[in-house]
Amino acid sequence: MADDRIKLLKSLSDETRFNIIKGLLKGEKTVSQIVKEVKKAQPTISLHLKLLHLNNIITSRKEGKFIFYKIKNKEVKKVIDILK
User: Fold this and answer.
1) How many domains does the chain have?
2) Which of 3, 7, 38, 40 has its CA 20 to 30 A from that of 16?
3) Residue 1: pLDDT over 70
């Protein structure tokens, strides 16, 4: 449990990942939507999404040719609210 919290805090310590997570708090999004919102290159976003997925912070689902990402770890919203 504590290990999950540490992974979450480490993930939030990067500005790009923090911005991705903030965007996903509004609902699930595709990579293209995240790229547009965060204003970073697609390969950069994909790398950060992979790290967030490996740390069990986000999850994904495929629909046709699109992959949708959403928050998996419910603690994320609480942490973001505290940081505001």
Assistant:
1) 1
2) 3
3) no
Residues 3-51: tens digit of each pLDDT: 877 888 888 889 999 999 999 999 999 999 999 999 999 999 999 999 9
Determine the Cα angle at 30 with ends 38 and 60, to 5°. Answer: 115
Ordered alpha helix ranges (H), 1-84: 2-12, 15-24, 31-38, 42-54, 75-83
Q: Which domain holds residue 54?
A: 2-83
What does the block give as tokens for 69?
Answer: 């990402």
Torsion sign across C-alpha atoms 9, 11, 14, 15: negative
CATH code: domain of residue 22? 1.10.10.10
